[in-house]
Design brief:
The chain is of the alpha+beta class and 402 residues long. It folds into three domains: 142 residues, Adenine-n6-DNA-methyltransferase TaqI, Chain A, domain 2, CATH 3.90.220; 94 residues; 157 residues, Alpha-Beta Complex (Adenine-n6-DNA-methyltransferase TaqI, Chain A, domain 2), CATH 3.90.220.20. Helix content is 34%, strand content 19%. It has a four-stranded antiparallel beta sheet. A hairpin with a 2-residue loop joins strand 14 and strand 15.
Length: 402
């Protein structure tokens, strides 16, 4: 097949400037441009009195625009019918296609090619490795694009969109499969620990040899490390690098030093409250700040793995989160946000069958979790493969191989 001819963008696009002085009494719909070729979006609607700009520029359907500042990150796109008549600042150059020469949708996909963005990035480089210039129009107009006849451009766009839709569908199905596996896990946990088992169930306090929130949090450079909310992710402890102040570390009581296998519970902050993780010692001296509780299982009455599985599971999470107090949207005085108070934490009900049954339940859940994790790994691997497909499709498209 004969290669397509290449032309400079300046030959097929004409700059357009529809500038107007800002009218204080007028309402303006202002646009931004998403990165990675995701195109323009309505950022906000303001009155003329609410913008510091003295001049704004109107855009029209089928304009091709880009962000000078973020062009190196793929901030290019086409104005849709819904965004016709919106406004941008002078940092967003706009162009109209020369009739019969170029389809702006074809151009939009071309700007999603990694090789094209690499060229843009090189043109944006500053005078030093740490500086970056805006992508100027002269560089934009000088870019060379392979350009078949208009009918072929439209065929290529249709083919790209057809394949992109299939990629999106496959990605959605994989994501749904992972969500269904999570739902299955939660369903099994609810069957193991139904609401009916909570009546007269022992409290978390009665099943632990130590249950307390930390008391010291002043940071410094001692050899005593500190666990904070960000270190307790759901089902995963993130090793801390933070340390207590030297004059504070000696105040931590020996029983408040975290031990291998202790359960960590996030007790503060919206979006974090109720998260549970298992601490695994790396030989450091570590304690928690006031936002993290330590639950140390009493091995005479409860298997530590069982208690952790329950608190991580659907029923345990519901019991922890339903005890939240405070309103994080309104109570912002003295950091008085959402809290899982220690008194409420002590009362969390935990159904406790005989130790042998506890261990059987843990084994069953571990086996099911292994299957869910395997599915998640497959989903992640497939998602990565699917993400790599579109660039490959685009590369073939602009070589005339689709």
């Amino acid at each position: 097949m004969k290669p397509w001819p290449t032309v400079r963008l300046g030959e097929v696009l004409t700059p357009t400037v529809r500038g107007e002085s800002v009218d204080a009494s007028k309402e303006y719909r202002l646009l931004g441009i998403r990165l990675d070729g995701q195109g323009p979006f309505l950022r906000e609607t303001v009155m003329g009195t609410q913008t510091s700009a003295t001049k704004l520029f109107c855009v029209a359907e089928n304009d091709f625009i880009y962000s000078r500042l973020f062009a190196c990150r793929g901030a290019f796109g086409v104005i849709s019918k819904e965004l016709d008549g919106c406004y941008v600042s002078s940092e967003f150059p706009a162009f109209v296609p020369v009739p019969g020469k170029i389809d702006v949708e074809y151009l939009k996909y071309w700007f999603r090619l990694p090789s094209v963005i690499a060229t843009v990035d090189a043109d944006c480089s500053g005078s030093t490795p740490l500086t970056r210039n805006r992508f100027k129009e002269n560089f934009f107009r000088a870019l060379e694009i392979p350009l078949p006849p208009l009918a072929e451009q439209r065929r290529v766009v249709a083919r790209i969109e057809e394949l992109a839709a299939k990629i999106h569908e496959a990605r959605t199905l994989r994501h749904q499969a992972a969500e269904e596996a999570e739902a299955l896990m939660a369903g099994v946990e609810r069957e193991i620990w139904p609401d009916s088992m909570l009546k007269n169930a022992p409290s978390l306090e009665s099943l632990t040899s130590f249950l307390a929130r930390g008391k010291q949090s002043e940071q410094g450079e001692s050899d005593h490390y500190l666990i904070k909310t960000q270190h307790v992710q759901q089902g995963r402890y993130v090793p801390t690098l933070m340390r207590l102040a030297p004059h504070i570390a000696p105040k931590v009581k020996p029983e408040a030093v975290v031990q291998d296998g202790d359960i960590l519970i996030a007790c503060s902050a919206a979006g974090c409250l109720g998260r549970v993780a298992r601490y695994r010692s790396d030989g450091k001296i570590v304690s928690t700040d006031t936002h993290i509780a330590i639950a140390r299982a009493d091995k005479k009455v409860v298997d530590p793995d069982y208690l952790y599985a329950y608190l991580c599971g659907a029923q345990g999470q519901h019991q922890l989160r339903s005890r939240e107090r405070g309103d994080w949207q309104r109570e912002k005085i003295s950091f008085r946000l959402t809290e899982l108070n220690l008194n409420d934490l002590r009362k969390v009900p935990v159904p406790v069958p005989p130790l042998a049954e506890q261990r059987r339940i843990v084994a069953e859940l571990d086996e099911l979790q292994a299957e869910v994790d395997a599915l998640k790994r497959l989903q992640a691997a497939t998602a990565a493969e699917l993400d790599a497909l579109l660039p490959a499709v685009l590369d073939r498209a602009f070589k005339g191989e689709l």
